[in-house]
Design goal:
heterodimer, A: mainly alpha, about 0% strand, globular, B: mainly alpha, elongated
Chain lengths: ~180, ~240
């Protein structure tokens, strides 16, 4: 557990630790799925909280804080995916890619992870982000727009295109 | 397919997930009541949506940051409380509280940088003999022992650099504020080391540079941002 020592001079360290406890699960879930790497998701989420410490959002309400954390984690994840895909293309020529570490020791969870990854690899990173924010995180179009920087109509269109792309794949699997 | 069907289908996902305004919602509903093709399209989208919802909301074990990272964040929060600017560089590397000697990590990047700086000087101007002559040497181009073109440090990413050499040299690319910039810096330094390792020169310790000189040397390597982070385990690699 985190050290519960009280911060001395004004900065609410206890409040920060409570914030970490409250949001770490959702952020890890989202980043882990978006970058398809639960271990590097730990890097992303840690960096998100570090940035919160350095430049906390001005708004004080819980909803705004959550949106801010998701926005930072989203941007870090998307940057990582884009950087990795550029570098990955180069690296693939000389070394095989690292296997994705298992998300869980529970067989059913690992199978679920792999099944869903098999599906989500067919959509773009933006479509993946919107799908995850909508279905996994239960965010509304307005909240997704705030997190991703898209307009609300663009969020709707991105989700629509993502679903359309997934439909034939699910049909092939006999699930639709 | 009718034009109207086309425009209705564009809004169908919004209809399925309940994000359409009342007017559009009613329009889709009315259209699907009379158009069987659009009705079946709507059903298919509904099924896809339900499947995704089921898969993505499935219960999983609670996820949390590992203990080491929680400890680092806790330390960063305490550091913030005493008005120290926390950063990933200042907290990464050890899990628990760190002692005073480990806090003095400002020089951890300096040795790799020094190796690169030394390399540039060696190739460009010969071996430096005077501790204080860095600026002078840098501003006076010498014609003796010119560096072969292929050994010059690349101003940008050198496509000839084998990215695998990063791992050969034990470099760890951190997740940080500017991944791409750090990656470029690491590649430059890796390249410098690659050349350095082929060059007969005493080990990296005892370099005739001080901290200020390192900082003045940084622009020569395109390192105008924050210094790259190196794991402490990376350091012995320099004792060639």
């Amino acid at each position: 557990m985190m050290d519960q020592t009280k911060a001395g001079s004004g900065f609410p360290a206890d409040e920060f630790e409570a914030l970490v406890r409250t949001h770490q699960h959702a952020l890890l879930q989202y980043a882990g799925r978006l970058i398809n790497d639960p271990v590097r998701a730990q890097d992303v989420v840690q960096e998100t909280f570090i940035r919160y410490l350095n430049t906390p959002p001005e708004a004080a309400d819980a909803e705004a804080k959550a949106a801010w954390l998701f926005r930072v984690a989203h941007n870090l994840s998307v940057d990582l995916v884009k950087t990795e895909s550029r570098r990955g293309e180069l690296l693939k020529q000389v070394v095989p890619p690292d296997p994705v570490p298992p998300v869980s020791n529970v067989l059913a969870e690992r199978e679920a992870w792999e099944r869903l990854e098999g599906l989500l690899q067919h959509v773009s990173v933006d479509q993946r982000a919107v799908i995850l924010l909508f279905y996994q995180q239960g965010k509304s179009y307005r909240e997704i727009a705030e997190i991703t920087g898209m307009s609300m109509s663009n969020v709707g269109m991105t989700l629509h295109r993502g679903l359309k792309k997934l439909r034939p794949i699910l049909e092939e699997d006999g699930q639709v | 397919m009718h034009d109207h069907c086309e425009s209705i289908r564009e809004t169908m996902t919004g209809f399925v997930v309940g994000e359409l305004d009342t007017k559009l919602h009613a329009e889709v509903e009315a259209h699907c009541a009379t158009c069987s093709a659009c009705r079946s399209e709507l059903e298919a989208l509904r099924t896809v949506s339900r499947l995704l919802e089921r898969e993505l909301t499935a219960k999983s074990m609670p996820l949390e940051l590992n203990a080491a990272r929680r400890g680092q964040l806790s330390e960063a929060a305490r550091a913030k409380a005493v008005s120290q600017r926390p950063s990933l560089e200042s907290v990464q590397g050890t899990a628990g509280p760190r002692d005073a000697s480990k806090r003095r990590t400002g020089l951890r990047w300096a040795i790799p940088l020094a190796a690169a700086a030394m390399l540039l000087l060696v190739f460009s101007f010969g071996l430096p003999t005077d501790r204080d002559s860095f600026d002078q040497m840098a501003s006076v181009p010498k014609v003796t022992s010119p560096a072969p073109q292929e050994q010059a440090l690349p101003p940008q990413d050198d496509p000839a650099i084998d990215p695998a050499s990063l791992s050969t040299y034990g470099l760890i690319v951190p997740v940080s504020r500017d991944l791409e910039a750090e990656r470029r810096s690491l590649i430059r330094i890796a390249k410098a080391r690659e050349i350095f390792s082929n060059y007969e020169y005493p080990p990296a310790y005892g370099l005739p540079f001080d901290q200020g000189q390192f900082e003045r040397a940084m622009p020569y390597f395109g390192l105008d941002g924050p210094a790259p982070y190196f794991e402490p385990t990376d350091m012995p690699m320099l004792a060639m």
